Amino acid sequence: MSDTPILAAEDVSKRFGSTQAMSQMSLSVHRGEVVALIGENGAGKSTLVKILCGVHRPDSGEVLVDGRPHAFADARHAASEGFHLVHQELALLPERTVAQNIFLGGELRGRLGRLDWRTMRRRTREALAQLGVEGVDADARVKDLSTGGKQMVEIARALVGSARAIILDEPTAALSPAEAEHLFSVMRLMTQQGIAFVYISHRLAEIQEIADTVVVMKDGQHVTTRPCEGLTTEEMIRSMVGREIADLYPDRAERTAAASKPVIAVQGLVDPPRVRNASLVLHAGEVVGLYGLEGHGQDEILACLAGARRPAAGSLVVDGRTTPWPDVARANALGFGYVPQDRKTEGLLLEFSGTWNLTLPVLRSVVARRGVVSSAREAALAGAAATAAGIRGDIRPPVTTLSGGNQQKVVLAKWIAARSRVLLLNQPTRGVDVGSKAEIYALIRTLCDRHGVTALVVSREIAELKGLCDRILVMSHGVLADEFDHTAGEEEILAGAVGEL
Amino acid sequence: MSTTTRRSEWLTRLRRSGWLMDPLAIPGLVFVLALIAVGAASSPAFLGSFNVANVLIQVTPLILIALGQALVIGSGGFDLSVGSVISVSAVVAATLFEPLGVLPGLVVALLAGLAVGLVNGLLVAAGLEPFLVTLATLSAVQGIALIIRPTPGGVVPQWYTEIAGYVGTVPIALPAVLLISLIVRELLRSTRTGANLVAIGGSQDVARLLGVNVRWTLVKTYLTSAALAALAGLFLVARTRTGDPTIGARFALDSIAAVIVGGTLLTGGRITVLGTLIGTLALGLIPNVMNLAHVSTFFQTATKGLVLVAAILLPNVVSRMLARRRRRSEVQGTTDPLHGLATSSPARQP
Asked: What was the ipTM of the complex prediction?
């Protein structure tokens, strides 16, 4: 590591309309260094990296390249000098091929000014090989790739040019543990070649694994810059939130599962290709975790119960009565509330107000006389649910105006408004800041402990399930293989999911 | 196993060469073959040279319009104004042939079409909805055509009408039109403008983020569509020997239908030129086959709609069937859930 940072932001400030998104923020990254940038949602991390990579211009302050002030005209300009931004929402075109995506905006010309696809395909293959990616054809359409594969295409985009620094905005949010692990080994390889990384993530354990330096932001301002070594997760959380979180996870009421009555019993569920055999029983007031490696069927079990998928075989017993597998409307009537994994495409109508989103499942009950929706009743119902869920912010404008954490609370709160008895939660804290996480955990726990609601939670983080749930079911290769108490060790649970140890 | 590998390698190479048809165009091709089969079965005259020539001359101008429409749809838009551009270029040409001479008349007619394309392009590039923009120009430009020449007329020299003539059963203009198709295909495959156009259709945000000049590309797209429509108008002047202010009216919908039957994605982001030619042929064959099968004119219009719905539904049904087959093969463990990533993950099926 040399002393002059290859890329730095110095005292940058940025204002969007009336909101001061960033003030006097500084960050620098050296050759071969991995700088983790952390902070709650809305802390300004994405704004900062967009300034670093020329997407936004700072109102004041400067971007320095090799210690000298250097203004990028746009993202293309920054990329041409080796500074690449891998976006949180992947900037890919699903219908175009891998090679076409990688060279988009910077296609190579050959003889007669024609685009030279032969060279571009070769360079694509080389970049993918350099990343250790196998089985991705340069001519494959991007829509046919897995999320991990898509991520690699984005990173390969940086590699076909001359990469000096790559900025990753929450790259692992949608990756499976195996895919994330692969990404890290690729990053380590690239840092050895002198490429630097700025890395945004909410997963603090990952940061400890990969980062050299940790930069903490809060409310658009710099909080602290510290070497990663010796920094504990608790310390990171404390500096991000600016207040003590004694415990991320709520206390749980002591219970004996056997004592309460079964609410849902699933026997022999088969949903090809991923679910081969699953049987489970959920009791009133329980929070049950469902863990599995990516693609091992846990998402599908949740979707079957929610009515979003139709299983091929299996019986469902609700409150002691055998019931046909529901469709979405019927699942709703049964009191099942589903929180899908992607709130932006599946959980919310983004252009609708928070109020409308909250009352959508219970439109019938907000309808007043003559089939007309009563706005008064609607507002009252939504307001009550928003208060119960602790949503901060105005729920009247489109939900996009709320922060990620509050958006997620809207998804959850609509089932509070609907008085759901069973919550089917797929990664309920995905892409949510630490403060909101704790609040969402507490909310789930309260609903279950005080109101007898049953929750089935799918998560990619074992620690989250251990902290939140009473017991944890483990899927392995499409079979519900094992069950653990929340006191079981992470290694034990992972071994159950791997199914081979 | 090795034979299948070799065969798939061979297929891959063929696909890369760009001469293999986009799979999206296959349903359209099946549809055209079915139309030909029905036509041949219902009347011996169908494959006769008179009828073949008739279909081909019908199809010739539609190809030009549909190519432009394919570019616009591929960029994520619609061009409803192509019909009015055809009409205006036709009346301008027929009106100016006598006072100015044929060549100046053609140039002015083409410029009139380009002017409409420029307006469309600038307004769409400014962020207005393509559907609304071109609906507005459709109306305005149709009005202008009717002001210039309220009824069909103008003087068209005899020699100019020859471009709508035949060599045998093949329209003279057809090879030129096919050459233009090849140029469009080459534009899409081998120029930055083409790549940018398709990228914009896939996602304007992504394209902008990666430094594509979205506005200028959109302007060029609508200019091209208008230029091709104007060319079609000039062909129709030769064919009808007059400047008819309403001659283009039906072409907007026919061109959109041809593009979609051909397989180009209505949502943008993927264009098949060969498919567009196939779709155009389908649109030319539908009325022809129905004529020969003695379907009355009123029923023809209704039937055409039904046939189009069927042609558009078919690809969906097929793709759903393929998806189901893929799902079944996944059950047998042939598809790795981590497809696309080389990891030593334990998640793989044993």
From this structure: 0.81
